[in-house]
Amino acid sequence: MARQHEALIVGAGGAGLWAALELAKAGVDTAVLTKLYPTRSHTGAAQGGVCAALGNQEEDHWEWHMFDTIKGGDYLVDQDAAEILAREAIETVIELEHMGLPFNRTPDGRIDQRRFGGHTRNFGEGPVRRACYAVDRTGHMILQTLYQQCIKHGVKFYDEYHVVDLLSEGGDLGSGGRAAGVIAYRIADGEMHVIRSKAVLMATGGFGRMFRITSNAWSLTGDGAALTYRHGVPMQDMEFYQFHPTGIVGIGILLSEAARGEGGTLLNDAGERFMERYAPTLMELAPRDMVSRAMYQEIRAGRGIGGRDWVYLDVRHLGRKVIEEKLADITEFARIYQGVEPITEPVPVQPTAHYAMGGIPTDNDTRVIRDEHNTPVPGLYAAGECACVSVHGANRLGTNSLVDLLVFGRRAGRRMALDVKGVGMPDVAADVQEPVVGEIERLRSARAGENAAGIRKELADVMMDNVGVYRDEALLTEARTRVRELRDRYSRVAVMDKGRTFNTDLLEAREVGYLLDCAETTVAAALARRESRGAHAREDFPDRDDASWLVHSLAYRAEGGPVLRTKPVTITTFQPKPRTY
Ligand SMILES: Cc1cc2nc3c(=O)[nH]c(=O)nc-3n(C[C@H](O)[C@H](O)[C@H](O)COP(=O)(O)OP(=O)(O)OC[C@H]3O[C@@H](n4cnc5c(N)ncnc54)[C@H](O)[C@@H]3O)c2cc1C
Q1: End residue of a domain, out of 351, 380, 406
Q2: Closest residue (by CA) to atom 27 of ligand 1?
């Protein structure tokens, strides 16, 4: 007999935990499944802050935040969603404070706020202090706070259960069926569990591991987006993947934008603050897509440090006190991973793959939609980085992801609590797990075959080299061919570990399959979009083209590669304008 819970949450990052908390508070029997121990979720690595127009340091308004989000996203943002984000940011941050989150404080005891890229006063006049923060460990504090609250409110946790498939009733999820639960593989012993549910939330985080140089944890392999895609739900806006300007050279570990928010500068080989040429008003605090492109331009012009492919992040002038009190962790990262002392030396940095603007399409209540007419999939929800509402459009602003988790995680929980009331527990067939058990057993039992780690590495190389900050037709066409070849090789993967106890070899092989799904949709959508917008920079189509391309892309799974469709962007308040900073 399958287990059951009224609501299931897949993923224990900020989005999943806040949704679970909301459900538990509403008296709904709720369980969270997570492949990592909950407090190891990537939300815990978020450094710089979470934005909300509290106005604690200077005048600020949610309307300014809404505008910055839309302009930052190069006008591909759905403006009704951005309004929700900017308005509800304020109450969710205060709610977190009341849950006990230890924010940094102003001298008079209010939540302290600092600057972050693309956040401005009065519709673009200059930088504003909007990011609330707890040193440079904001995500860690959010995750710990929410986890404690979930425990307090009796949320059930399935720790280290890897969800390997989704269940539906009355047809597949992409063709009218209703979500009915999940199939999960218990990592400790390889046992398969079928868990029925009236409502399932995907909150599985991003997929930065498609790329060689990334700030993302090893576990960020796009599981949720890939699983829904395999059941007929499209992936939205996959061509938009953000490269963060300041990764540690060669390994991509992040040095938060908070360093620039506190006044850090970027220097080229000649010691120039080169951002003067690209964004004269906001300089280093321009949005990330622009700063990453500017760095590449400098490097291409031979002005990288020593002619190499990096520049300097300089915080020396901030002084020891600011560096140690407000940028403590990232200073340690520079010391440990680079052997550089930021108090006395500039730190070498290069762009690192960081954030997925695209993902599982949803409406403003986090209900997953399956087509361009916004038809909801009954019982299925998505929130956090795996989802695409879309509040980030073509490029996310710094600190807007944590607030997305809070606002849409909370909305997910509230909506699910309402929806589960009116429906019965779905039925699932007794042998429903057979297909996925078959797939996993094939991986385990194959005597010889392709090596999944090798495919993962080659995929990360081709995505980095051909689908990175700059793209063109030739690079993308080559990437499409290479990803297809890797897919073909993937069908012959064999894992070496034949055991059932903690078989990470097996699960990583499964994750490579998810990364391939994300990569094929990213490449297809990037090839189709013949313009440059936000994080998608085509050298062969350098201009934004609102007449043809002010639309979201939807990539559907099909034999022979993804099929693409488009859907309109919701514009309520701000008409697209040229994007200068
Ligand atoms: C280094 C770094 C710094 C950042 N700093 C900031 C910042 O300062 N401000 C900001 O706004 N944003 C920041 N971001 C972005 C932000 O942290 C993330 O977008 C956000 O935390 C994602 O949260 P999430 O809840 O969607 O998922 P995550 O926190 O990534 O959690 C994903 C969860 O899904 C689970 N999961 C995944 N697949 C499966 C599966 N198959 N079965 C079961 N469970 C599964 C995992 O176990 C995990 O619990 C940063 C990101 C990084 C990488």
Answers
A1: 351
A2: 205
d(Cα 255, Cα 415) in Å, to the nearest integer?
Answer: 36
pTM of the complete model: 0.97
Q: Which domain holds residue 522?
A: 434-539
Residue 264 lies in a domain: yes
Q: Is 113 helix (H, G, I), strand (E, B) or coil?
A: strand
Domain co-membership, 439 together with 535: yes
Distance 32 CA to ligand 1 centre (A): 15
Q: Strands, E, within 447-532: which ranges?
A: 470-471
Q: Tens digit of pLDDT for each residue in 54-94?
A: 999 999 999 999 999 999 999 999 999 999 999 999 999 99
Question: pLDDT digit string (tens) for 532-570?
Answer: 999 999 999 999 999 999 999 999 999 999 999 999 999
Cα separation, 43 vs 205, in Å, equals: 9
Q: Verify whether residue 3 is a known catalytic residue.
A: no
The encoded tokens of residue 239 equal: 């061509």
What is the rounded (10 degree) CA torsion for 540, 544, 545, 546? 160
Task: State the number of CA atoms in the 13 A half-sphere of 540 facing the CB.
Answer: 11
Tell me, yes or no, whether 229 lies in a domain.
no
438-490 pLDDT, tens digit each: 999 999 999 899 999 999 999 999 999 999 999 999 999 999 999 999 999 99
In angstroms, the CA 390 to CA 368 distance is 12
Category of 59 on φ-ψ map: left (φ > 0), alpha (ψ -120 to 50) or beta: beta
d(CA 118, CA 137): 21
Total structural domains in the chain?
2
- Ligand 1 atom closest to 48 (CA): 8
Length of the chain: 581
Check: CB of residue 258 under 8 Å from CB of residue 133.
yes
Q: What is the CATH number of the domain that holds 523?
A: 1.20.58.100
Tokens of 554: 């939807």
Domain C-terminal end among 351, 378, 408: 351
Query: Does 440 share its domain with 347?
Result: no
Cβ 350 vs Cβ 379: under 8 Å:
no
In this structure, the residue with its CA closest to atom 2 of ligand 1 is 46
Residue 319 included in any domain: yes
Residue 132 counted as domain residue: no
Catalytic residue from among 129, 130, 137, 288: 288
Question: Residue 263 sits in a domain of what CATH number?
Answer: 3.90.700.10
Round to the nearest angstrom and report the end-to-end CA distance of the chain.
59
